[in-house]
Amino acid sequence: MTQSQEGRQTDAVVRSGPVGKGLRVLVAVVGIGLLINGSVRASDDAWPFGPMSQYAMSVPDDAKIDYTRISALTDAGTTVDVPLNIEGAGVARAEIEARTGEIVKNPSLLQQVADGWARKHPDQPKYVKLELIRDTTQLVKGRVEGPPTSQVLATWEVGK
To answer: 137: part of which helix (H) or strand (E)?
Structure first.
């Protein structure tokens, strides 16, 4: 809004020139390209342009719900679930879920989880064996049908 000489407010229209329009189009094309690349690659490595599947969605009444976790045997002889977050083992659950197929093919990738834990928690028991586990819960008519079933997808003996 601008004020005219008579004190009335008037609307002022500012138009973009060809350079401004070209820049806006370029930014839009690059952004769309990054979104497509992240979605096609289906990897959180491209975040925030990663896959949209990481966002919440509704679950059908008759469905299986999968939950991926890592279980660790420690040098103290205890079995624990690895805290899959930056403060725990230094890796987020989303990263493990996004790379599950790679980990199944190459379980040595779990070494990074053990190394992250040891680096962040030097005063805690060390991991000596890791298992990538998928827990599956069955829903029937929207209700949980029995206890979850567990499947070990990969096992790794931690190196020293």
So the answer is: strand 127-140
